[in-house]
Amino acid sequence: MSALVPLRAQLASLGSYQSLQAEAEVRLNTNESPYPPPVTWQRALAEAVGDVDFHRYPDRDASGLSRAVAALHGVGAGEVFCANGSNEVLQCLLLAFGGPGRRALVFEPTYALHAHIAGLTGMEVVTETRGADLRIDPDRWPGAIERADPDVVFLCSPNNPTGRTEDPDAVAAVVEAAPGLVVVDEAYGQFSSWSALTLRGAHDGGPEPAGDGGEPAGGPQPAGGGAEGLVVVRTFSKTWAMAGARLGYLVADPQVVAGCRAAALPYHLSAQTQLAGVLALRHENEMTERVRKVADARAQLAQGLGELDVETWPSDANFVLFRPRAKDARDVWSALLADGVLVRDFSTREGLEGCLRVTVGTPKENERFLEALAGALR
Ligand SMILES: *Cc1c(COP(=O)(O)O)cnc(C)c1O
Asked: Is 31 in the pocket of ligand 1 (CB under 6 A)?
């Protein structure tokens, strides 16, 4: 006789990881781009989709897309793995290199899906807290790595939901010290002044990391430079304004890429998704322009927040973390929603008590948010 079985323990707390998809006039809760992708991209995609042989399976290795991503970053196509959003990238990576008997290290507060997906594959998740500036703490991370001896270390730069980019020297030092993979999630990488992709150069004799005050080029590094385990993850969801398309990728050693391909379901990336990505990469200038516009709007938003009774943290991404000083964060969140503005509530997350996060919108949306917040704080 069949019967229902209980949900796996790792899924029981899923609700707390999911962002509310509520109706609101101004939605500033999931760090999407406030601007749609270029109209020329939409037209090109519609036309190209008309030519797809939909009775055939798509290119299993997404080779055209991988080549286009590789060209964008100046790496080989064999160093690129693409999937349905960076979350699926992480899932494939951890199915391949995580699993029972292996350990992941995360620095909280950070993107909740890192620990969640690691746990889903059966990994043990070890957490270390961040420093007072909400970046990884140089007094604590070396000990944390030594104690945990992790198979996978997660960094997030700029970090979601706190907003700061990690220091290049710190990331280089983590890559040097970690015994296994170091995953740098750069979902907001285009907003940042540097990318961990520059650290990968070291292992094929390329340029040294920017701002590296450590060893001189060609210094006493082990053969291979110790950067083989560096995995940089990016997404089209945020800066590329394509959250609805579901496309992300990683850049890593070809052996890591081969592991991800082995873990992914065959033909996981549809023909239209692959096309969407290839065509988007022909619009790099428009995307860069969107990033600039959002960065300008972020300055406007930060200035407005600075005039209200809230504590804020500097942001290198398209969102700002803030904490109402005199009002309960949950009440402020509800008042904002009642006023048609949806932001993300982190007030019950450890290390983020009383905090809310607002995504940078269009200048008009930011004005609406600031007005609603001023009202909610009154
Ligand atoms: C939004 C976000 C992602 C994106 O996930 P997709 O599956 O690519 O939409 C990944 N990592 C971080 C840190 C994010 O904030």
From this structure: yes
Q: How far apart are CA 300 and CA 148, in angstroms?
A: 42
Strands of the sheet containing 356-359, edge to edge, are: 310-312, 319-324, 356-359, 344-345
Kindly write down the DSSP assignment for every residue of 251-277, as one continuous string: E--HHHHHHHHHHSPTT-S-HHHHHHH
Q: From ligand 1's centre to the CA of 220, what distance in Å?
A: 36
Q: With H, G, I as helix, E, B as strand and everything else as coil, classify residue 185.
A: strand
Weakly modelled stretches of the chain, pLDDT under 70: 13-19, 202-225
Going by C-beta distance under 8 Å and a sequence separation of 6 or more, which residues neighbour residue 60? Answer: 266, 267
Testing ligand 1's pocket by substitution, the residue of 160, 321, 346 carrying the most ligand atoms inside 8 A of its CB is 160
Instruction: Give the Å distance between the CA of 51 and the centre of ligand 1.
Output: 30
Residue 268: count of CB within 10 angstroms of its CB: 17
Q: Is the bond preceding residue 150 a cis peptide, omega within 30 degrees?
A: no
Closest CA to 242 of 290, 293, 193, 285: 290
- Give the domain ranges of the chain: 9-37+285-377, 39-283
Atom 11 of ligand 1, residue of closest alpha carbon = 187
Q: Where are the beta strands (DSSP E) in the chain?
A: 26-27, 80-83, 103-108, 124-129, 152-156, 181-185, 230-235, 248-251, 310-312, 319-324, 341-342, 344-345, 356-359
Please name the amino acid found at residue 197. Answer: L
Q: How far apart, in whole angstroms, are the C-alpha atoms of residue 340 and residue 244?
A: 22
Determine the pLDDT at residue 225.
56
pLDDT tens-place string over residues 50-66: 999 999 999 999 999 99
In tens, the pLDDT along 244-256 reads 999 999 999 999 9
Q: How many A from CA of 207 to the centre of ligand 1?
A: 28
187 lines ligand 1 (CB under 6 A): yes
> Domain 9-37+285-377 belongs to what topology?
Aspartate Aminotransferase, domain 1 (3.90.1150)
CATH ID of 39-283, from 3.40.47.10, 3.40.50.2300, 3.40.630.190, 3.40.640.10: 3.40.640.10
State pTM to two decimals.
0.92
- Atom number of ligand 1 nearest to Cα 237: 9
